[in-house]
Design brief:
Length: 160
């Protein structure tokens, strides 16, 4: 088996949609980025790439490439889940923590798991936690959102 960690952060800005874990959430601001800035998908994607030992999200989807402008991040995640399969691994477990002062995200967690399961990771193998930063720092001031994620990959073949 292999493990990987992922971290991502995105700034909150006016005039942007707030998309996280493949779910659009009503809020006065949204996440700013070259793609749709889905911070949860990016952290999970990086965790899987890390477990595969294949660099990072920027290696696979460089933000200097106009091809990835406004990219739907859950589709990028699906392509990395497929890449794991091609390398003989399946995603056995994802754990993640979203840190956001606002909006309140816990009501959307089941929706996010359902959306993420469309990448090929069963919803029962994904855990998502949501918390605030107790008002401290840039997260506490509502300037941005951070996600930490861990991935466990297991070999699809018999030999381990
Ligand atoms: Mg990102």
């Amino acid at each position: 088996m292999r493990i990987g960690t992922g971290y991502d952060s995105h700034r909150l800005a006016e005039g942007r949609r707030f998309i996280i874990g493949g779910v659009e959430i009503p809020y006065e601001k949204g996440l700013l980025g070259h793609s749709d800035a889905d911070v949860l998908c990016h952290a999970i994607t990086d965790a899987i790439i890390g477990a595969l030992g294949l660099g990072d999200i920027g290696t696979h989807f460089p933000d200097s490439d106009p091809k990835w402008k406004d990219a739907v991040s859950i589709e990028l995640l699906k392509s990395i889940v497929d890449l794991a399969k091609m390398n003989g691994y399946f995603v056995a477990w994802i754990d993640s923590t979203i840190i956001a002062e606002r909006p309140k995200l816990s009501p959307y967690i089941e929706k996010m798991k359902a959306a993420l399961s469309r990448t090929g990771i069963p919803a029962g193998q994904i855990n998502i936690k949501a918390k605030t930063n107790e008002g401290m720092g840039f997260i506490g001031r509502g300037e941005g959102v951070v996600v930490h994620a861990v991935c466990l990959l297991e070999k699809t073949e018999k030999e381990r």
